[in-house]
Amino acid sequence: MKHITLKYLATAIGSHIWQVLCPTLPFSAVCTLMVIADVVTARRLARRLQRLAPEEQERLKFSSVRFAHTLSKLAHIYALLLLASAVEYVIIPEVQLTRFVAAAVCFWQAISMLENEASANNARWARIIGRLLVDKTERHLGISLDELHHFKEEKK
Q1: Per residue in 76-95, pLDDT tens?
Q2: Higher model confidence: residue 19 or residue 30?
Q3: Number of alpha carbons in the 13 Å side-chain half-sphere of residue 103
């Protein structure tokens, strides 16, 4: 009898957890794809920077610390989506807060992808976008983009 009661209790707890998680799964999937796309554009930026400054190759490699940072970012996003879903379910069901949070995360990742693609890129569109967004080259290497272009010209 005790075994059956624990089984029903575990089933009830599991179904409540699933009820909380299920509405956030599509939003979590989209946010995960955006983070993965951001990682891909960051890797593309690192390759461009390696061509400009080969001596900085070790600092630009993808490391376990950067992977841990990405996993931490995903965990924070999932927690934020769960919290938004809980607030939406319990407090204000009229407002689609989970959808708003997912849209904000996607916008944040899209801006980051644009920054990655525009940094250390000589294309015309990249120069236009670079005037509006932050150039990540300085953050990654600690030197300005002008110094990198000067270094590239001296090398020729």
Answers
A1: 999 999 999 989 888 988 98
A2: 30
A3: 5
Q: How far is CA 128 from CA 39, 47, 121, 152, in A?
A: 23, 21, 11, 21
d(CA 112, CA 129) in angstroms, rounded, equals 12
Give the list of residues 6+ apart from residue 120 with CB closer than 8 angstroms, or none: 45, 48, 49, 52, 135, 137, 145, 148
Alpha helices by DSSP H, listed for the chain, are 2-21, 25-52, 64-90, 97-118, 124-132, 137-141, 145-155
> Is the CB of residue 20 less than 8 Å from the CB of residue 118?
no
CA 91, distance to chain mean position in Å, is 28
d(CA 53, CA 151): 8
Of all residues in the chain, what percent carry a pLDDT higher than 70? Answer: 76
pLDDT at 1: 53
Alpha-carbon distance of 85 to 31, in angstroms, equals 15
Please name the residues in contact with 7: beta carbons below 8 A apart, sequence gap of 6 or more: none
Residues 6+ apart with CB under 8 A from 119: 45, 48, 126, 130, 135, 136, 137, 145
Q: What is the DSSP letter of 156?
A: -
